[in-house]
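Reader question, answered in our methods column.
A reader sent in the components of a multi-part assembly and asked whether the whole thing could be modeled at once rather than chain by chain. We filled in our standard form and ran it. Here is what they sent:
COMPLEX SIZE: two components
ENTRIES:
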Amino acid sequence: MSRRHIIRAVVTALLAGIVLFGMIAGSSGPRDRVRAITSRLKCPVCQGESVADSPSDVSRQIVAQVQDQVSQGRTDAQIEQYFVDRYGSNELLDPPPSGRNLVLWLVPPLIFAGGVLLVQRKVTSPNRRRLRVGSVVALAACGAVLLVVFRDRSASDPSSAATPPPTTQQATDTTTRDLSTVTNDEMETVISQNPTVVGMRLAIIKRYIADGEIDKALRHSAVAVEMQSTPAEYEQALQLHGWVTFLHGEPASGAKYLRASLALAPDDRDSLWLLAQVELNGLKDPQSSLTVLDRLIGEQMDVGRRTDVLSLLNVARKQLGLAMVDLTTAMADAARSTTTPAVSG
Amino acid sequence: MVHVGQAALLVALLGAAVTMTLGWKAARSPASVSTRSLRVAAVVTFLGLLAAVAVLEDALIGNDFSFRYVADHHSSASSLFFTVANLWAGLEGSLLLWSAITGLYVLMISRRWRREDEQDRLAAGALCVASVVAGFFIAVVLFVTPVFASVAHPPKDGFGANALLQDNFLMVIHPPLLYLGYVGLVVPFSFALSALALRERGVGWVLRTQTWTVLAWMFLTAGIIIGGWWSYEVLGWGGYWAWDPVENASFLPWLAGTAFLHSAVAHARRKLLPAWSIGLIITAFLLTLLGTFLARSGVIASVHAFSQSNLGPVLLGFLIVATVISGWLFVTRMREVATAPPLKTIVSREGMFLINNLLLATFALVVLLGTAFPIFVEAVTGSQVTVGRPFFDRMAIPLSLTLIVAMAIGVVTPYREAKPADVWDELRLSVQCGLATGAVGVIFGLRQPYVLFVLVVVGTVVTTAVRQYFRAVQPRLALGESSLTAARNVLTLRPGFWGGQVAHIGVAILALGIATSGNMADRTTLTFTPAQTIHADGFTITYVHPTARRTPTHEVRGALFQVTRGDATRLMEPTLHKYPNQVQELPGPSIWTTSHGDDLYLAIVALDNTSATLRIYRYPFIYLVWIGGLMMAGGGAVGLLLRRLRKRSGGEDGFDDDDEDGDPAVSSAPLADADGEIAIPTPVGADLGLIRAAAVALRGFRTRRGAELRP
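And here is the structure of the entire assembly that came back:
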């Protein structure tokens, strides 16, 4: 070996050493556990987004809970299990390697192994033996990685929880999707042609409320409460009219219609929720609002709504000078008392 | 007017049927069909589709709401630019565009048909296959999801396009680029199927379709990158790739197409891997159909949405028929058509192509698995399972890292046979430069393993490309060519190779952008009250005041922030957009690409009069993703351009028909045999003497190198 070769080798080794040092220094640093865990959890109200990426209220709540649990020193597996218990196994974006999910873990290495064998068959040469050794090494590496992953996961493997009961989400989804292809103007046309059909009128009221066109909503809701309809439709008409009149700036009238609606269906969570808001924000009556909210809090509801209810509860309690409820504990309590996974309402 | 559109489509369908029949006949015996009639049929198909597109565009521009498509997807408030783009804002219109592009490709294949050439049964067969595909999609827009339907009571104004598709230039060009790419794969697919059906041996079909393959790949790459960029700029979740099924549906054909692009080189140059090539292009095309099926049938949102329209079953049926026919042809004809000598060793360019194919095919199958698994589980058991980013990342990261390493090694591996030691000799200086790049990174405080790894690869790949270029140019300069002439001659001699080099540098840059933005990002969520100042991620952010305004199409609420870092100050206004046809407000993130090379990304989470809650992301060098991605697509363009230049200067038509022995890029391995056999490269221009001299000089140059390498 000439001196030149040695210098070259030393320089290469030095450079490689520096890079390696940087890599090792980087990988030994503290890991953002909260982000790592929340990016493995699915945002319960979104389409395939992770909790870490989603801006929804529920996700922010979950991030706070994860932060809490991490600071309590719970392991990743325990925290993940906590959320799987609450939202079902569908909550994990990365299905654990058990049961049918094993397919996801076993098939990719099998594909790769098959490919390696195929490549090996294409090559015939004196080097064949070396290639075979190479393939065996590649496959062994593949297997080793798999083994490590499994051992890593086996501690955190949440028992493949029973699949959640079918929710009503699907049905509501499809109906809204169908209606969403109809424009407001088309709906207006249909309503003016069939003035006695309540359902369509209720649908357009909701849409106008969502669009913030309160005047138009009021025109329809005022008609809807005067119409002949089924008890369920009448209850909903009262509820919507109450909310619309409140939005229109008449809280007293709003509360009246909402109470009427509650008289027909005392357990209607939507009516309770709207009434609580009208009492607190419209009539500036935290005490009555609190009464309504206390009734509401005993009901089952999804996490997002519960967060909202608890937040409003705290606003009311604050105005009355009462102690605030700790959101995280309250959420956990509610989740524990709920035997079935929350149904989106 | 609706009927005019229908009539145009009927004409196109008829044209496609005639093209198919004539193509079939011509494939059996070219003499029985006149060139003219075949071309006329193809022109009629295309003109019919063009007329249909024109009718729909006319209705869109003229606000003719008696067209159901116009009423559903257009509103008179749209600007002209977006009105034109509304052609592909809805399902039916985009399928029409798809058919029109297929028609365009049919037309182009028909221009290539040479009847007098007895051997050109290949093109006739390809024309037949392509017009079947065109005919299918025309039938879909005519009968299954009719694009030309009328409304009984035309509304005064329409619903408007999906708000997400409005007001962003990127989203306007994203779909047509993707379709050009998707549909472009029809050409090599048709030729491959035709070669199988006609039992044509040889590399003819690959050579004839290389341009199309590169073109389709280029469009597909650009389409995917621009889709990601749009997602980042518009959707406000702070990322560009979510591994969602629709994205995967475009990524799958890209993976198979990229694998084909590489195996086609080995096939065209060394007559190797013919079975891989045919298998890969068939797979790529079937994956575009699968992608269309996944994205269009509603099967992703829910298996139950599948049966809501006829489109899903029809697409699935076509996919199955296409799979069965091409699979049957592949299995039964393969041995007759594709006989290739086995590779001598895996340590050769061919071997590296094989490894590339193995990795890309594995990648594609894994993505397919992750995408299809939830659909299967839901269809079979009714229960839902989620396969998200963690799964795809776990699979994609090792595969991608191996791929870019193979990319760096493959370029310097010679054809036929090499010794690992020779490959290392060739690579050593590049790797040293790569390591030096990484070391500089470490010295400047970079500590992220993935980023450092990719940085080393970037350094290696760029150095290799630059060295290859200078080594090829040097002997020419020594012979007195001007640097411009030398550059031109070197580049046009191997259009495919240099296009590939550009694309490879693009891949490395893209990988670097993915690594930096993914691993070194800062993410915070903060709530501001007006006039409040918060320091976050190195920025000083002051909430100035909330804003609100109305545009012709929608309402905008926003929050104005003054953001300072160092001397630089920016006013940033992330917004929320409320469209009349959309219940939820859509985010409008505000992005500042700073002079430090990082992006500050602000998106509103919640906004009222008293406070604004903001997600704040800092992404270092995320723009490398767009630059690298577009450079990849640009590599395709460079290859095509150089090829044109070569053709114009009288060279032969092809991407890489220089022989590997005349290839200065290869290592000194052939010299080890000391047979001194160096082929004269294909003549470029008229000056054959100069080239001969160059080759002689080259031999001397390499011998010197050889001596230096082996003391």
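What stands out: Chain A touches chain B through 71 residues (CB under 8 Å). The domain at 3-156 of chain A is CATH 1.10.8.640 (Helicase, Ruva Protein; domain 3).
Send us your own complexes using the same form.
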